[in-house]
Amino acid sequence: QAMAEAVTPPLSAAGGCNAGFLRSDSILVVTFITDEPEGASDGNVASWTQALIDAKNGNMEAVYVLGVFSDSDLSGGVCDGPPFGLDPAPMLRSFVEGFGEQGQACSICLPSYADCFAEAVGGIKTTCDNFVVE
């Protein structure tokens, strides 16, 4: 929910602490890293997604989302069982997957995030290459 609030008024409006952050000539890249499920957050997948799309003037193609969170909801997930045993985060997974090729989910329990970040950089580059300034 903090992400959604950061890109909407009053925080993103003139005089707000995030004024000028959103630009019409660039994509919006959102990265979140958490070992907690989304249970304490206000809002829902649809409202979070809509906040980002609205922030980019209705252009979903101008958004890329990278989420690093528990994969204990997946068969064979790294976070499933000892030593991690983290709760699943199905809303976060649904949020990221809702962006299709412009969304990437990685396990918070990986021993290294190097491959995850390298793949994200490739996805961000593709999103930039396909972005058309309106």
Compute the gyration radius: what is it? Answer: 16 Å
- SSE arrangement, N to C: HEHEHEH
Structural class category: alpha/beta
Query: Order of strands in the sheet with the most strands?
Result: 1-2-3
Mean pLDDT: 93
* Apparent shape: globular
Q: What portion of residues belong to β-strands?
A: 5-15%
Largest sheet, strands/sense/barrel: 3 strands, parallel
Number of strand elements: 3
Distance between the termini: 28 Å
Count every helix, treating DSSP H or I runs of 4 or more residues as helices.
Answer: 4
Q: What's the helix and strand layout?
A:
Blueprint (H helix, E strand, L loop, with lengths): L1 H5 L21 E6 L11 H11 L7 E7 L20 H8 L5 E5 L6 H17 L4
Parallel strand pairs: 1-2, 2-3
Give a short overview.
By secondary structure, the chain is of the alpha/beta class. The chain is built from four helices and three strands. The chain has a three-stranded parallel β-sheet with strand order 1-2-3, with helices on both faces.
